[in-house]
Write a structure and sequence with these properties.
This protein is mostly helical. 62% of the residues lie in helices and 0% in strands. It has 13 helices and no strands.
C-alpha cells in the first residue's frame, strides 16, 4: 500500500474530492503485490486517519517503531551469536555482529539525533549466568596460582582487569597480586594473603586456608590463562550488551533518542573489552636494540713549555 501511494502521481485535490478514481488506481497497483486486497480495507484505512494534515507526524511514529525493531533484531543476533559460539571458535563472528549493531545505531542516530543526554530509564537486565561456571572458576584459580609463582609475568598482562574474573574473590586476589607486583614487593601465597586481608577480602567469611589453597595450585602460563579469562569476559560482555539493548528496544516508553544513547553506552563497554583483547593478542614487541657504543673522544693536544729549539730561536 505504501509503495503504491508513493509511486503513483498525486491526484488533483478538486477531482480527488469528487470521486475515488485515484483510490482505485492505488488499489489496483497494490493488488499486484498483495493478494486479497479489497476496496473496503482501503476505505477502512482512510477512515482510521483522524487528521490527514498530521500525516508527517504519523510517518515519524512509524519510522521510530521501525528503528526500535531494527535495534532489537541486531541486538538479538549479537546475543545469539555469543550463545552459539563454541569455546574454540574465533571471536570474529561476535565482532562482525557488534559492528553491524553499531552501524544500525549510527543510522538511527542520523535519523533521530539525540536532543539531550537522558539515558533510558529501563532497568538493565542482570548478566546471564556464565556457561561452564565450574570450569571458569577452576581456570581462574590456575591463573592466580601461576601469577603468584611467577609475579614477573603480571607485567605482561596489564590488559586483564579484576572485572574479567568470574568470582569476586578471584577478582580481589588478582587486584592484590597486581598491587604487589606494581610496588615491587615480595609475592608468595603468604604476602598475597596478607594483602587480601588488608583489602578486606576476608571480611565476608572467606577462610584463609581457601585463599592459600587457591594461590598454591598448579602452575602453567600466566599469559595463556589470562587470555582465556579475558575471552570469557569479552563473550559475557557482548551477550550482556545485546540483552541490554534488547531491553531498551522492548520498552515502549524509551524514545528513539534514549535508544541511541543507551545503545552507544552499552557498545562502549563492549569496545573497551574488545580493545583490551586486541592488546592481549598483539605480538610482544621485541626488546629495543642496545644503543651503539659511543666513540671515545680524541685526546686534546697538550700545551706545555716551549722546547729547547723553540726557546733558542726566541732568544
Amino acid at each position: 500500500m505504501f509503495t503504491a501511494l508513493s509511486t503513483l502521481p498525486a491526484p488533483d485535490p478538486a477531482e480527488h474530492a469528487k470521486n475515488a478514481t485515484w483510490l482505485d488506481q492505488v488499489l489496483a497497483t497494490a493488488g499486484q503485490q498483495v493478494r486479497g486486497l479489497t476496496a473496503s480495507y482501503l476505505h477502512t484505512l482512510v477512515q482510521v486517519c483522524p487528521r490527514p494534515q498530521h500525516a508527517p507526524a504519523y510517518a515519524r511514529m512509524i519510522e521510530a517503531e521501525h528503528a526500535r525493531r531494527r535495534l532489537h533484531t541486531a541486538a538479538a543476533r549479537l546475543a545469539a551469536t555469543v550463545h552459539s559460539l563454541a569455546d574454540t571458535d574465533p571471536l570474529q563472528a561476535v565482532f562482525t555482529e557488534a559492528d553491524t549493531l553499531a552501524a544500525v545505531v549510527d543510522d538511527v542516530a542520523a535519523r533521530f539525533p539525540p536532543r539531550a543526554t537522558v539515558p533510558p530509564r529501563t532497568p538493565v537486565p542482570a548478566p546471564a549466568p556464565a556457561p561452564g561456571l565450574a570450569e571458569a572458576i577452576e581456570e581462574d584459580q590456575v591463573l592466580l596460582a601461576t601469577a603468584t609463582a611467577c609475579p614477573e609475568d603480571i607485567e605482561h598482562t596489564r590488559w586483564l582487569v579484576p572485572g574479567d574474573f568470574t568470582h569476586p574473590l578471584h577478582a580481589g586476589l588478582w587486584q592484590c597480586l597486581s598491587a604487589l607486583a606494581r610496588r615491587q614487593e615480595p609475592v608468595d601465597p603468604v604476602t598475597v594473603l596478607w594483602e587480601a586481608q588488608q583489602q578486606g577480602l576476608l571480611d565476608h567469611g572467606t577462610p584463609p586456608e581457601k585463599v592459600l589453597q587457591i594461590l598454591s595450585g598448579p602452575q602453567v602460563s600466566v599469559e595463556h590463562w589470562a587470555q582465556r579469562t579475558l575471552r570469557r569476559s569479552l563473550l559475557a560482555t557482548a551477550q550482556h550488551t545485546g540483552r541490554r539493548i534488547q531491553a531498551y528496544a522492548s520498552d515502549p516508553a524509551t524514545t528513539p533518542f534514549q535508544l541511541v544513547i543507551g545503545a552507544r553506552r552499552a557498545l562502549a563497554d563492549l569496545d573497551a573489552v574488545r580493545t583490551r583483547w586486541q592488546h592481549a593478542c598483539a605480538p610482544t614487541p621485541p626488546p629495543p636494540p642496545p644503543p651503539p657504543p659511543q666513540p671515545y673522544p680524541a685526546p686534546s693536544p697538550r700545551t706545555g713549555p716551549p722546547t729547547t729549539s723553540t726557546a733558542r730561536t726566541l732568544r
